[in-house]
From TrEMBL:
Source lineage: Bacteria, Bacillati, Actinomycetota, Actinomycetes, Micrococcales
Listed Gene3D superfamilies: Metal-dependent hydrolases
SMART domains recorded: POLIIIAc
Species whose genome carries this gene: Arthrobacter oryzae
CDD domains named among the record's database cross-references: PHP_HisPPase (cd07432)
Protein name as it appears in the record: Polymerase/histidinol phosphatase N-terminal domain-containing protein
Amino acid sequence: MTGAALTLAPVQFAAADTGTSRTKTITGHLEPGAADFVYLPVDVPAGVNRISVTYSYSKPAVASGLLSNACDIGVFDEKGTALAGKGFRGWSGGFRTEFFISAAEATPGYLPGPVGKGTWNIALGPYQVAAQGMDYTVSVTLDYGPDGAAFRPQYPPQHVAGRGAGWYRGDAHLHTVYSDGKRTPEEVAAGARAARLDFMISTDHNTPASHGAWGPLAGNDLLILTGEEVTTRNGHYLALGIEAGEWIDWRYRARDKGFAQEAQRIHASGGIVVPAHPFCPYVACRWKFGYDDADAVEVWTGPWTADDEYAINSWDSMLVQSVRTGGRWLPAMGNSDAHSAPQVIGFPHNVVNAAALSRDALLEGIRNGRSWIAESADVSLDFNVTAGGRSAGVGERLDAAADARVTVTAKVSGVPNGVVRLITDEGQIQQTTLPATGEGTSTWVTTPQLAAYVRVEVRHPMTDGTPSNGTAMGTALLLGPMAALTNPIFLGAK
């Protein structure tokens, strides 16, 4: 089941001689409350080797606070528009006003391949319609002739040989010119290396078109995994580690069944589902599908903002709920969501404890919460708990008696004058300030009956230079931007 859709009458093209082209233009008007997707069918005859599309829509002036017009575009080929079907051929959202597809090449965001005979569908996505309505114009050009040489994607490998167990740094939310980013894949890979990352995951919006460009850019120093940012009308999520070339559909709302179906497909392929920037305030951006089908949640996206503060507090409440119910807990992730300069690739990124530098090992580490988040590779954090000769690290559980004395240790470097916060299900329990060198160790002794879990936040000083103040009882916490954040260590028998 997909979001509301409207299919118009088909546009007919007749056969033509090789070397010729034919253009037809479609115009229309949409009122406020239009369907989520408007399909413009185009009957493509045999003998076509290229389809080109341009579009425009009216942008009337509106009063401050009212919605203006905004309309996405994409295309499905003769295989149809069924949810998660085989007909998807590309999507550029509102980032481009034109695209083309041929056997040999296509506009970034679109999939090269033969222009087969049958009914293609230009898909409009009018996600904002002003009170005046939206006038649209779509021009379709068909070129006739034999196909050129077929495009051959170059997919990246899914592991780096010889890299065993260890902590690996990676940014799992990155965009290129294949969706709404301004960086080429070459520039993104170079940025990941400059950030001293071990891995990165490509997540262009609603399309796998960039997957075939990453192969030559991967190397023994950088594992590149394939993914997608799935951009629905009720929030965005990351499909991480999906098979190269695999496409995840986005045409559904929280009231539909599409998300559960697509999450199942992602899991079946070995990938994971991660709601992205869940408190983003923009239209169609805030997460509304719940977390039953999620494997982790992105609580820190790019430079630290109020949205992230909301996300971390909501996530912490979810940890408490998991303790109360005995159910599973949802690990936290942090990613840059970098699109273009000055957004910094790797700010922040995940530091994952994995059995190898491979897709399966990294996703397992993320899924099990064996990770923490750093604003850059200059920040390091070693966090563990010990009791009676036993120890546990991030994402693990220390099985100890309710009254056992547990020593909590957090060793930090790379955050000058930063504040180290130890946080439990009760809230912040200890705060220490790092010296100007940025290095220090915080320790605390507790018991499982006092603390169901412990996690660490490392904050920068406030923007005016004063230390973060999370100690005042009954007053608002004055907290600087995040520098590092861990997943919890749980204490006591499950």
